[in-house]
Design brief:
The complex is a heterotetramer, with two copies of chain A (312 residues) and two copies of chain B (299 residues).
Chain A (H helix, E strand, L loop, with lengths): L11 E3 L2 E3 L3 E3 L22 E2 L16 E4 L2 E4 L7 H15 L4 E5 L4 H10 L6 E7 L16 H14 L6 E4 L7 H10 L4 E4 L3 E3 L16 E4 L4 H14 L5 E3 L6 H10 L3 E4 L2 H4 L3 H15 L5 H4 L6
Parallel strand pairs in A: 3-14, 4-7, 7-8, 8-9, 9-10, 10-13, 13-14
Antiparallel strand pairs in A: 1-2, 5-6, 6-12, 11-12
Helix pairs in contact in A: 2-3, 3-4, 4-5, 5-6, 6-8
Chain B lengths: L22 E13 L2 E7 L1 H6 L5 E4 L12 E4 L2 E2 L3 E6 L4 H7 L6 E8 L12 E6 L7 H9 L4 E7 L8 H7 L2 E6 L6 E2 L2 H8 L5 E5 L2 H13 L4 E4 L15 E5 L5 E5 L6 E3 L27
Parallel strand pairs in B: 8-9, 8-12, 9-10, 10-11, 12-13
Antiparallel strand pairs in B: 1-2, 1-7, 2-6, 3-4, 3-7, 5-6, 13-16, 14-15
Classes of the chains: A alpha/beta (312), B alpha/beta (299).
The complex binds flavin-adenine dinucleotide (2 copies), flavin mononucleotide (2 copies) and FE2/S2 (inorganic) cluster (2 copies).
The site of one flavin-adenine dinucleotide has 22 residues of chain B, from strand 4, strand 6 and helix 2.
Chain lengths: 312, 299, 312, 299
């Protein structure tokens, strides 16, 4: 893939940080990027969004961890990962050496965890910014998910913004499983989020017809893939409508350049490709190419012109 | 298997990575042939064929351009020819049924070769190969490679019934000895592969197995009990096949003696038989690295 | 289709009203049943759930009214229909003459509308009960949808229950677009709902890559079909878990008997087949047949035994 | 067209329902033949063939057993033979492309015949048939029926270019006169069908049209202006094709003079040309029955 395979200027930004292109991986859907090397030029991506990391190494949940669903899948990985020490020692240097920008997703179950992670990531080479995965249970509030409560969500974001490197933009990753996503978006923006990532998975459940029990040990899981795309585009549309100045990293079911175009027209200035990578390991590069071609065909000379165009 | 075994007491080392990375290609089916309950597909896929090593697999997109099933289906490589790759598909759910319906001239989207190959023993070591159902197909290439490295090859292939036996002829052509078992006695000896394995493990210096999990466990246990290193190719449900999703994990003891949830697609599918904690598959033992952060405490 | 094509007792109930079978149409997905006559024996269905009716005849929204999405569709019909007078004069007598039980879906934009509809439907021959479509904007609350607010939702249900024929069970039809569906379920049950219908469509949006504007004139629409099934099963599971005694009419993406089985195992005592009818006009009868066979294979002698089985 | 026209001033009556209900069947493709830019499929569908009347359509499930595209694709019936039904498919999006790729021996799931057929004029009436693109195919059966009822048949078939012309031969074999137009002049006369329509409408007692909406509107307007009744087969986006979803509506004036959002699948696709409010398609005029309840007020 060449970044500039059309005349369209595909550069964009995450907050104040410039990106060579608008297509990123999605957290948890491309691990830490290394496994994609045989399939795509990682340096041509906007960034690798890394699997959400917590303070300690985590085993994740027992299997089965997934179920295929119509045009999507349900997952319950349980944030298996190396912990912040492992990330700082292993994956981030690997990416930095190759010049692959990392947008680091952080997760926790208490506000202080998030803040500590942000502190640990200050000034780390190659770390463009932080995506804050607030779709985690808040242990201090009977396990309610941070992202489902505007107050809890903004507590996390305020703490992260205060602790994080000022040069690193902080994006809040929102859950669609709320009655009013605009109110959550507004709350986290007021708390200091430099941008919003939308959407995380929808809460779903599949029952195995053979065992007659939920497929996943955790009972429910996160629904992703093209099945959820109309919900994701709706969230991006609503939030961009209400908060047009807030940058959005759009995601949820993007499989093709025309899918990505929907998110851009709805208000996203960059997109993440998640589940589609499982179907097509070179999906990120293909989506970039197809999006560039689609923009050119529609007479745009830059991606930026197209952001939010459907609202005009 | 005890979870407290000392680091040095393992008979196997983790299987090393494959020598070459995978490719993704749209390839043509050059032949489709029913074999018992299965369908054998041969694909014109020179780049995959050239890179493939026994024990590796490929992952197919299924359902055609309008498919609602996004996850790839992993299928073991049963053999490679002149620029071709052969696989044996057991029609089961929608994805494998679709694959089994492909005909010569159709194209399929394939990623591979994936996963770690079977490590080879010292030259001249007698090897026992055990295949269950279509799992036997994945051992044909291994049998050939072992023979060319000077190994004596003993093969056992078993299945529920005669129609589900696989690669008996192909193994017969290359192995020094082939034992056939079927649960219902419709071909070969009546019973499980273990009857034959128990007889042959004593003369073997290494064992390899591919097939359903209970069979892998039985073979690994028999080998370990006999002091023979074994390598098993596991079949865990996979969403990506390339190591990015973390759905395909199982508890495996690493070279440092610690158990981790290891990805069967990139750290497997071939694991040391004495390193897979079969009894703990599908659960989260306290001593898996990072179990403490999940709230699991040492009992 | 014969109702008893297996040994399994497939009878069930909506509240206190017995049904010959557990498979119903879904409101808005089989009009008033008449068009299905060439394809299925309507009398063998549990009931025909009629398109939501309001007090006055409605033209519905201008076209385009739909967009196909991966494993689903987005619709924005705008409740086109004959109004309650038309329904009472035309469709309900047609169904009653043929002995086809009707579960009448009612909709409105103020509490009194719902109550008046319930009054008008008292004692009408063939009307088994009422499904209250509360996924409508509440004109008295800045257009917020009733179903998104436990208070507004229970006001509607209390008014309908008070006005309705005591012999007609009242089911509240819930929206999945809420942070906590259990709290809405609890509120409407306490307000007198005899049962719950779950789920209505999810709010979605599709942007047309050619016009670069939302496909639907109403911008957003309702997402339905197999794509949403994991969300629907999750809602049924959560509510049955919290309120095991409340009967549930499950729906959302049911296409096959095994899909229906998931809902039953999660806690639904009957199911509606909606979007699948567009794909297969005889889907309701096929789902009944397949569900009966699936129950038989699993050793159930009656549908009732299987209701909520996945929780045990 | 004025919205205030008096009830009695319409030249057409709403088309009556078909005489028989539809069926749903899994049928075999007996032949697939490229015709210009299109593919003509012939299906072994005796029950559909026996019931079909000109102007009706069928609805196909698309994408195969694993499809993510659930909505049926409506395709006009281009003709019926001995137990067969013929359709002409223009590959466009994923559904029609999939259909156009079907080959002899494949099976497809079809529902039909659907919709209301073209009403026939009094015997001996000269009829003008106007087809745009693949729309011409739907008129071949009508031409034959009209001839057998003693009508003189004048046909106009037009398209963007020669490859998109359709059924020229078939119409030539049965019509008394066939005019061909293409926008680019690559076949027949250069220009729109309207050039020919304007010439022929005067000798006609009734006009029929099938094709894109702007063409239908032009033919209907020309006919109405000439005092000739016209029937048009519209093509609205359909989710179900059988009348249950209400996605396929357009504003049509009923026999009582009131405009309703009418379902093009069951109340159409054939409507009186002077009854379709073409200018208002895609909007909600205040005088549509029930527009008041939507908050639309008389201006
Ligand atoms: C490394 C590896 C090698 C394999 N080799 C072969 C082979 O040579 N021949 C063959 O016929 N099959 C093989 N399988 C199994 C094959 O991938 C599954 O049978 C097949 O995916 C079933 O898919 P389905 O669509 O028919 O069934 P479905 O039940 O519809 O599958 C649903 C999901 O579950 C997964 N799944 C279902 N069954 C299995 C299974 N047994 N193992 C892993 N995942 C499963 C599918 O991949 C899919 O994601 C292999 C699997 C793995 C992991
Ligand atoms: C009564 C009727 C008769 C028709 N006859 C023919 C025919 O003889 N030959 C033929 O090639 N096509 C015909 N069409 C159009 C055909 O149904 C659409 O071209 C086809 O559905 C396009 O689908 P797609 O999957 O290729 O495109 P997509 O763009 O993927 O379709 C997406 C959705 O929009 C709908 N849609 C898209 N274009 C049209 C259209 N032009 N008209 C109606 N719906 C559309 C589709 O049905 C589908 O639901 C007819 C349509 C109707 C309503
Ligand atoms: C297997 C899997 C693992 C995921 N892990 C994470 C994660 O660790 N952190 C996170 O913020 N989102 C995670 N997600 C959500 C994705 O980043 C993304 O928001 C969601 O899947 C929607 O995008 P998609 O439809 O393109 O996959 C995960 C999704 C999947 C499918
Ligand atoms: C075209 C269409 C129209 C609908 N109209 C109504 C309606 O009038 N009232 C209602 O309560 N639900 C309506 N629904 C929602 C369905 O009844 C059902 O709750 C939803 O579609 C989920 O089920 P499904 O996936 O089986 O379609 C409609 C759905 C569709 C697709
Ligand atoms: S299948 Fe995705 S990591 Fe193994
Ligand atoms: S297409 Fe469904 S009502 Fe016409």
């Amino acid at each position: 893939m060449t970044v500039l395979d059309t005349a369209v200027d595909m550069t964009t930004a995450l907050g104040s940080v410039p990106l060579v292109g608008p297509v990123l991986t999605a957290s948890g859907c491309s691990a830490f990027g290394q496994e994609l090397e045989p399939f795509v030029d990682l340096t041509a991506l906007g960034a690798v969004v890394t699997k959400s990391v917590q303070l300690r190494p985590r085993s994740g949940r027992p299997t089965p961890r997934m179920a295929e669903t119509p045009s999507g899948m349900l997952n319950s990985i349980g944030l298996q990962g190396p912990g912040i020490d492992g990330l700082l020692a292993g994956e981030l240097p690997w990416l930095a050496e190759r010049g692959v920008p990392a947008f680091v997703s952080i997760a926790g179950t208490r506000v202080e965890d998030f803040a500590e992670l942000a502190t640990r990531l200050r000034g780390v080479p190659g770390v463009l910014g932080l995506e804050v995965n607030i779709s985690c249970p808040n242990v201090e509030s009977r396990g309610e998910v941070f992202a489902c409560d505007p107050l809890a969500a903004s507590d996390v974001i305020a703490a992260v913004r205060a602790a994080a490197d000022p040069a690193q933009p902080v994006y809040a990753k929102l859950s669609p499983d709320v009655t009013d996503i605009v109110s959550v978006a507004r709350a986290v923006t007021e708390a200091g989020a430099d941008g919003l990532s939308m959407i995380n998975t929808l809460l779903g459940l599949v029952i195995d017809p053979d065992t007659m029990k939920p497929v996943l040990g955790g009972v429910t899981g996160g629904l992703s893939g093209p099945a959820v795309r109309p919900v994701a585009v709706r969230c991006v549309w609503q939030v961009h409508q209400a908060l047009p100045e807030v940058p959005i990293l759009g995601m949820g079911g993007i499989r093709s350049g025309l899918d990505a175009l929907q998110f851009v027209l709805a208000g996203a200035s960059a997109v993440s490709v998640g589940t589609a990578v499982f179907h097509d390991p070179s999906a990120t590069a293909r989506v970039h190419r197809e999006l560039a071609a689609a923009l050119a065909e529609r007479g745009f000379s830059s991606l930026r012109e197209a952001v939010g165009y459907a609202h005009r | 298997m005890s979870t407290s075994r000392a680091k040095g007491s393992y008979l196997t080392q983790p299987a090393p990575k494959a020598s070459q990375p995978p490719v993704q290609r749209e390839v043509e089916v050059v032949s489709a042939r029913p074999v018992g309950a299965y369908v054998e597909l041969t694909l014109a896929a020179p780049e995959v064929a050239q890179r493939a090593q026994p024990g590796q697999f490929v992952a197919f997109a299924v359902g055609g351009p309008m498919t609602a099933n996004l996850l790839r289906r992993s299928i073991a490589i049963a053999g490679t020819g002149e620029g071709t790759v052969t696989v044996v598909v057991a029609p089961h759910g929608p994805g494998s049924t679709w694959l089994a319906e492909r005909r010569a001239g159709d194209t399929v989207d394939v990623v591979g070769p994936l996963g770690r190959p079977f490590p080879l023993p010292g030259s001249g070591t007698t090897a026992l190969l055990v295949g269950g159902g279509y799992g036997a197909a994945a051992l044909v290439g291994l049998a050939g490679l072992l023979r060319s490295h000077g190994s004596r090859v003993l093969a056992v292939t078993g299945a529920a019934d005669a129609a589900r036996l696989c690669s008996v002829e192909e193994l017969g052509a290359v192995a020094d000895r082939v034992e056939v078992t079927t649960d219902d006695g419709s071909a070969g000896r009546a019973g499980r592969v273990t009857v034959a394995v128990d007889e042959l493990i004593g003369e073997s210096g290494v064992a390899y197995a591919c097939g359903p999990m209970p069979m892998l466990r039985a073979v690994a246990d028999a080998a370990t009990a006999a002091g023979v290193p074994s390598y098993v190719a596991v079949e865990e449900s996979m969403a990506c096949g390339i190591g990015v999703c973390m759905t395909c994990v199982l508890p495996v003891v690493g070279s440092d003696g610690q158990t981790r949830f290891s990805r069967s697609c990139t750290e497997g599918p071939v694991f040391g038989g004495d390193r897979v904690r079969f009894a703990d598959v599908g659960s989260l033992p306290w001593d898996v690295v990072g179990a403490d952060a999940m709230g699991v405490v040492r009992p």
